[in-house]
Specification:
The protein is mostly helical and 111 residues long. 80% of the residues lie in helices and 0% in strands. Helix 1 runs antiparallel to helix 2, helix 2 packs parallel to helix 4 and helix 3 packs antiparallel against helix 4. It starts with a helix and ends with a helix. InterPro entries: MATE_fam (IPR002528). It holds the Pfam family MatE. Keywords: Membrane, Transmembrane, Transmembrane helix. One of its GO terms (molecular function) is xenobiotic transmembrane transporter activity.
């Protein structure tokens, strides 16, 4: 958890500077800076979710975990991505929002 928090804080504090590592294009820098908050939240929550999933599998709830995974990734994630990406024209933000939404859903369902 310490490594995840450190990485998220570094990315958040340097959200306007770290895109320079990847590109010189101003438009790309601006877009990456815009979605860096979603990246930080995904890093933090994404580190907690596997623990809950592992505990659930270890407790013998493999079937429940499998159904929740299918629901999160395929039913909720793909449907939301399709609607937000094609219907509402959100573009690049869709990937970050959907990833964060699925991770949060996993976090609150406990598996």
């Amino acid at each position: 958890m310490i490594i995840q928090t450190t990485c998220a804080v570094i990315i958040l504090l340097t959200r306007y500077d770290f895109p320079v590592i990847f590109t010189d294009n101003e438009l790309v820098k601006k877009r990456v800076s815009k979605i860096s908050v979603f990246l930080c939240l995904s890093i933090l929550i994404g580190g907690i979710q596997p623990v809950f999933s592992g505990v659930a599998v270890g407790a013998g709830w493999q079937t429940t975990v499998a159904y929740i995974n299918i629901g999160c990734y395929y039913l909720v994630g793909l449907t939301s991505a399709f609607l937000m990406g094609l219907r509402f024209g959100l573009g690049l933000e869709v990937i970050s929002v959907i990833q964060l939404f699925v991770i949060v859903f996993h976090f609150f369902t406990g598996v």
